[in-house]
Amino acid sequence: ASEADFGWINQVISLLHVVFQALALRLYFAIEHRLKDEYSGDEAIRIHWLKEFLIGIFAVTVIAVLSFFARNFHIPVLSELYRFHFLGLVVLFYWVSYKALTYPAVFGLLSPPVSIAMNEEQALPAEPDRAEGEAPDAKLEKAFISIKNVLVDEKLFLNATLTLTELATRARVNRSLASEAINSQSGGNFFDLVNRFRVEEFIRIAADPAKKNLSILGMAQESGFNSKGTFYATFRKITGKTPSEFLKSQV
Question: How far apart are CA 208 and CA 231, in angstroms?
Fold first, then answer.
């Protein structure tokens, strides 16, 4: 293998690189889904930079492997790309450095990483036994009503760092049941539900004459949002308009 650049060991290792990168991406998307089931704010996109990095390194790896085999089988054009994948690695290195310097929090440099592997037995109320004859759907509906009531009555959605675990504790519902109830009764996950209430609060604040001095982002922060990106994406998804377009339509 050391004498032949295209020896079978190098070929196998090249393919393993692609498999490894693909599995890493798959794992990321699984974790991202779990985060949106637990967090309502920035924590849900805390590792968004990692997706960008994994996609970038996967693209560079695929180009490198394709050009590697193209050189082996003397395929023109593709074989010439081999030297350029090193440029992609350099770009990724500087990109990671830039992210670490400008957004250190996303790398956990300012605060310890949050673990999503939680033990449901810790600090959670015991799940009440289902009443005899109570249907599973009725149990989910009852749990969702409790969750929605405490969310609205106590305005927990104004807490930018609210988590599903905290909400379930306040509603006296087991966390796993709370997650299942939200997913089945609200048409979305925890992240979607809480941010829907925040959008409704933004609309209420925007209609309040006493709040006219606030900027759009100021009203968004008072509504529980702590991320401009999350606010704009959620608002447009729910209303079909940007915040500016919506406010102009209300004049």
Answer: 19
pLDDT beyond 50 at 114: no
Per cent of the chain over pLDDT 70 is 80
Q: Among candidates 236, 217, 239, 237, which has minimal Cα distance to 228?
A: 217
Mean pLDDT computed over 172-199:
90
Hey, what are 5's tokens?
A: 């650049």
1: confidence class by pLDDT, cuts 50, 70, 90 = very low
Closest CA to 51 of 114, 118, 106: 106
Q: Which helix (H) or strand (E) holds 77?
A: none
CA distances to 76, 97, 118, 129, 141 from 226, rounded to whole Å, are 51, 25, 24, 38, 30
Rg (CA), the chain: 24
Residue 158: count other Cβ atoms within 10 Å of its Cβ: 16
Quote the pTM value: 0.60
Query: If you ran DSSP here, which 8-state letter would residue 225 be given?
Result: -
